[in-house]
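Priority: low. Protein: Molybdopterin molybdenumtransferase. Input follows.
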Amino acid sequence: MTQEAQEEPSTPGAGGHHHLAHTWEEARQAAFDAATPIPAGPVSLELALGRRLDQDVVALQDMPHYASSAMDGWVVNGTGPWILVEPGVPLAPHQASPIATGGLIPAGGKAVLRSESARLGKDEEGLPILMTGGTARPGEPRTGQHVRKAGEEATEGDILVKAGVVLNPAHLALAALAGYDELVVQGKPLVRLLLTGSEVVQHGVPVPGQVRDTFGPQLPAVVGMLGGIAGGQQRIGDSYAEWLGALEDVLPEAPGAPDLPADVVITTGGTGKSGTDHLRRAVAELGGRLVIDGVAMRPGHPAVLAELPDGRFVLGLPGNPLAAMMALSTVGAPLLAALGHGTLPAVQEVPCGTLLEPEPGRTRLMPFRLLYGMASPAQHTGPGMMRGLASADGVMVVPPHGVQLGELVPAFPLPWGLPIPAVPDPAAKTKPRSGARTGKPAAKPAPAGPVDWSALLG
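Result:
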């Protein structure tokens, strides 16, 4: 498909049907409104990292659930010297047995004498006994010393992690310590990627007529940054049979969950209306409906969002990489946010660093660099380019009527970038700095006449 075909606005079809593309704002809202948050469900600890907890994690029993040794050494009963007995047997007064860190304190065990604070000797009859020595301090070991008591971290029923928290590695370790294999987390969309194009190569330098795959390396990561779970990818050619078969195959290759159907299928290419563009036809044959059929923006047109009868969404991205990323930001980000219990991604304002001429009827998405606090359009931002986006700080949403120099323009951050700095409030007054306020003497007035800079020159 040519770049021109990708970028032209919707035109009447062969049957005379004329479709009016959504505006950029309408498309974002339509994508967000089309989805219902995915219900909460259990996932294994291995898949729970970064998920939002839906139910409190409570202690199933006392933690620790038994008294254990905090040191390698000897568990003892009473004062020494101690008669040695076999490990694990109940201890009578003045008896001791060897124990390792984490070992179960046997019945009768009162304290643990560290290995470096003990020495072995013999009694009058030549039998082995344990005595304090080495680094032992007077009175060591005291009752309870170097013993981890049962329930000292939590008692049964205590809340260990409150619902609503985003799970980090320490939360998962705590849940494992408490005996959990799964945690109930808020739903998160599982996304399968359907990459198309017989001219696409995955390795090496492409020759004329070929293009390198740009979607395989970036889309799974971007899906994760937008709140989805990348559930594998499939590559197909340009035939209709391949398209239809791929959309019918609902099972993604999701690590740890191979039998779960995708919530969203993201396709690349095939969103135009030429003879080699099959997305709309395949959706229709499967009984789906079009939620969004084109967005009046550039780059990023034509973008398609459809819903299939089984509840899956199909997001069709244009075949050019920058156009696809703009369509994903416009339609995919709100869709994934809605499915994942999120809010519509925020748009803020930045001062524009140049004059942008009007382009009636179409919103322009311009990657920009922040220079001296103002958004300057990046270079190398053709629909098939990625160089400008790779160094951008965000994307300006340029309205059809254009933007004046210094005028505030809507913008959104990149999924992998830093938040866009807030525009300072011009109404906020800067407080005067004075020596009286800070308690420091006022600065001396600058001397009249020329300034001697020779000291700075060394």
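Residues 68-148 form a domain with the Molybdopterin biosynthesis moeA protein; domain 3 fold (CATH 2.170.190.11). The radius of gyration is 34 Å.
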